Amino acid sequence: MVSERIQAIRGMNDILPGQAALWQTLERCAAATFQSYGYHPVRLPIVERTELFKRSIGEVTDIIEKEMYTFQDRGGDSVSLRPEGTAGAVRAGIEHGLLYNQVQRLWYAGPMFRYERPQKGRYRQFHQIGVEAFGLEGPDVDAEIILMSARLWRRLGIGRLTLKLNSLGTLEARKAYRQRLVDYFSAHRTALDEDSRRRLETNPLRILDSKSEQMRPLIEGAPSLLDHLDAASSDHFARLRELLDAAGLEYEIDARLVRGLDYYSRTVFEWITRDLGAQDAVCSGGRYDDLVAQLGGRPTPGIGFAMGVERLVSLMEHQEVTVDDLSPHVYLAWSGEAVQTAAVALAERLRDEVRGLRVLLHAGGGGFKAQLRRADRSGARYALILGEAETHERCVQMKPLRADEAQSQVPWSALAATLAGKLGLVTDERAVAEEF
Ligand code: HAM
Question: What is the number of the ligand 1 atom nearest to the C-alpha of 304?
Fold first, then answer.
């Protein structure tokens, strides 16, 4: 009897070896870029108390109203899979006393969960790489994280991204603006679609974010948030623009960019691509100067962003960016049990002696012909062939698989240096010295 196969949950993807090089290149470049600005990695729990997300993201947001994976744990507590990383970072910062009167520059990476309708670029389990900077209220930090994201795109070789920028002002300014907006949309109530009518009661700013064609003219005529900023937020925004201008970074001001999470104040931004269809935001973030206090900490300013790894990976694929080569440098082929013992030792020694050398040691049986076919398929640059005669003479046959070079015989004692020379790697002098 054949059992029924169990499949993955809708919207939750397996990331398979064919995608490994793209993911690894992105993760490695992000880590290196953040490190070059003094940001430190943190690892935070995937499950948190539901209350944390309600109090930070906001009760009347899509995430809290309909997208959270919430359940009771066996102790009866309501817990949720994290839909994003900022709330957990703030919670951890307060809990460990990292925030008050201190500056913290942090980054994280990992899976997030939202029960959304899956489509291209929108999943129920997806991955973010995010940064959060705490304790700095000036616009220089806003510029820092935006320039840092732009540097990452350059480093990856991703092009054609547009930076959209807006300021939401302070909480008070937004309250006043909210009333203006309610007055405006109430006067046009009959022209509102169903979703917007509902938002008018709960979260009127989100009407500006509506993608409906029917709503477009009405939204375009709405009062602009930027005309209702408080003076300090206005100065903050002007200085940020000056800093970005001075750095030569282009952006578009988008007064309708309001974001789907409630904790933002002042600067908000999004990097948008035209290459991926409807799910066009690859990185979004902003300032959240009230959030730490809202979650019970002492008032501490904060700002950050998160990028959608799946979307960036699709974009890297689409734009055919150069990614890390993960294929082995050498494939070590051997035959016979006595030779296998020497082959295992030789492979270990080469990994010791040449820094970063990727050695794929043949496993399983098979003659040299079959092994060389596998070597070729593995993408290796060289096959090293070890038979009984070679083992006896302490040498290998070195067969180039990609370049038009002659096959040669190389003694074990010279193998590390020969490979390092041909592959542009360096030998680890200490390991070589110990061996001979
Ligand atoms: P967010 O805009 O909700 O912000 O998500 C950030 C990014 O995650 C989006 O720009 C998008 O690339 C990706 N993303 C979101 N939802 C999905 C999904 N269902 N499938 C695939 N990708 C998705 C935040 O999460 C904030 N915590 C960002 C932040 C950090 N603000 C300040 N600090």
Answer: 33
